[in-house]
């Protein structure tokens, strides 16, 4: 109504004024666009607007008092050379009782396992009294120190870590570990890579320059920092032009194995090499015994390795001998399924609990490389026997452990395809870089 009343009171001449106003606005529009200015065209008579300032008192909290009572969270990124005492000082902790507790209480010892790049946090009162101190250890546990009664207490619990996956790929030019170091693949993941393919590849003797690998593996991080690595999810290894692929498949909760893209288990009934693959023995020059420099097929295979390198059972079985055995020195013999048996000689010592009659599983540590008996240097003398006769195991078509049935393979295929896609993509990228 008020708007209608104002319009009805406008004289007829105001329409001509309005048309002039529109014309002026149309003329001004290009200028507004050109110069980036903004204007408002007003029409009709102007009316003054009275502005009356009003001041009203409102209740205001004592902000200074609130800030004074607010606890502070601070954090520090650990650098090489930092000490726990220095970090606590940087975190603003000015609490002698807390410092004394952290120095002397055995439960606080994990706090001293500092790792560069990790973060340590503290919550304090404004005057420096400790309310909380938190740190995630290398094992993935979060250590928390809090006031408790008249003193302090320590709580250790699994940290809430972010699970992600990473990909690394590389080409061997001298040794496997040199290649994995070059692309930043952790040693623990490299060890898993060897275990996955050791049924198909003799990593001690058969690696070649130009062999390639690709790995998708789990990482667990906190605040952007990797705390630990997990399981390999998928892997590829090209050895002497032969491409092998592996994908982890969980057959039941908490249990699983690695399978080829066809659903065949990569775990053979016998390991290709019973000597644990190590950083020291990974070079091409360490393929043969440094003196014999050849296979002795009529008796066994000699694996050169540093004293103390771990020796593993080649397959499930029962120990039939563990002790001193003439020229073999310290030796272990294992009876496996059927007519198969294996012998391990020149051991420096036996693993804990190794004795006659003991059942062992494939990969169990049974002893350590040495030079006892008739030996020219530290190495493992390994014999593979069928009905008591030594044979060359690399020339046998030993069976694999398991193949997925149709129903299991359907589930496996759905899980495998995206991981396989990542491996193939990175393989293409690596080949493009090499050109």
TrEMBL record:
Record-annotated M23ase beta-sheet core domain positions: 297-393
Cofactor (UniProt): Zn(2+)
Protein location: Cell envelope
Keywords for this protein: Hydrolase, Membrane, Metal-binding, Metalloprotease, Protease, Transmembrane, Transmembrane helix, Zinc
Tree of life domain: Bacteria
Residues annotated as domain DD-carboxypeptidase/endopeptidase Mpg-like N-terminal: 72-129
InterPro entries (alphabetical): Cell_wall_metabolism_enzyme, Csd3_N2, Dup_hybrid_motif, M23ase_b-sheet_dom, NMB0315-like_N
Transmembrane spans: 21-41
Domain Csd3-like second N-terminal: 169-285
Name by which UniProt lists this protein: Peptidoglycan DD-metalloendopeptidase family protein
Species name: Chitiniphilus purpureus
């Amino acid at each position: 109504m008020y708007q209608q009343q104002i319009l009805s009171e406008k004289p007829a001449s105001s329409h001509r004024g309005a048309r002039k106003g529109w014309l002026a606005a149309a003329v001004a529009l290009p200028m507004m666009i050109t110069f980036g200015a903004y204007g408002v065209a007003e029409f009709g008579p102007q009316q003054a607007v009275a502005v009356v300032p009003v001041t009203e008192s409102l209740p205001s909290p004592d902000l200074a008092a609130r800030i004074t009572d607010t606890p502070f969270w601070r954090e520090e990124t650990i650098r090489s050379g930092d000490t726990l005492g220095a970090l606590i000082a940087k975190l603003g902790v000015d609490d002698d009782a807390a410092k004394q507790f952290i120095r002397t209480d055995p439960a606080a010892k994990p706090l001293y396992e500092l790792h560069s790049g990790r973060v340590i946090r503290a919550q304090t009162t404004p005057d420096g009294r400790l309310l909380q101190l938190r740190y995630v250890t290398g094992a993935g546990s979060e250590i928390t120190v809090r006031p408790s009664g008249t003193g302090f207490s320590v709580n250790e619990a699994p940290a809430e870590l972010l699970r992600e996956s990473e990909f690394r790929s590389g080409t061997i030019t001298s040794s496997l570990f040199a290649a994995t170091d070059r692309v930043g693949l952790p040693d623990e993941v490299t060890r898993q890579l060897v275990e996955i393919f050791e049924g198909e590849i003799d990593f001690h003797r058969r690696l070649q320059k130009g062999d390639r690998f690709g790995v998708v593996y789990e990482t667990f991080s906190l605040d952007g920092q990797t705390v630990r690595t997990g399981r390999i999810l998928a892997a590829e290894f090209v050895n002497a032009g032969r491409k092998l692929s592996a994908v982890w498949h969980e057959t039941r909760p908490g249990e699983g194995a690695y399978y080829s893209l066809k659903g065949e288990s990569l775990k053979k009934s016998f390991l290709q090499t019973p000597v644990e693959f190590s950083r020291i023995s990974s070079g091409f020059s360490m393929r043969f015994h440094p003196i014999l420099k050849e296979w002795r097929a009529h008796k066994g295979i000699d694996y050169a390795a540093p004293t103390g390198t771990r020796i593993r059972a080649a397959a499930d079985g029962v120990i039939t001998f563990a002790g001193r055995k003439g020229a073999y020195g310290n030796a272990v013999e294992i009876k496996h399924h059927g007519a198969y048996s294996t012998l391990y000689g020149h051991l420096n010592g036996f693993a804990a609990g190794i004795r006659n009659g003991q059942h062992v599983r494939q990969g169990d540590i049974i002893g350590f490389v040495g030079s006892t008996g008739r030996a020219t240097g530290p190495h493992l003398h390994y014999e593979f026997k069928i009905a008591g006769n030594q044979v060359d195991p690399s020339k046998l078509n030993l069976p694999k452990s398991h193949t997925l049935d149709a129903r299991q393979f359907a589930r496996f295929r759905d899980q495998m395809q995206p991981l396989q896609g990542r491996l193939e993509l990175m393989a293409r990228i690596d080949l493009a870089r090499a050109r």
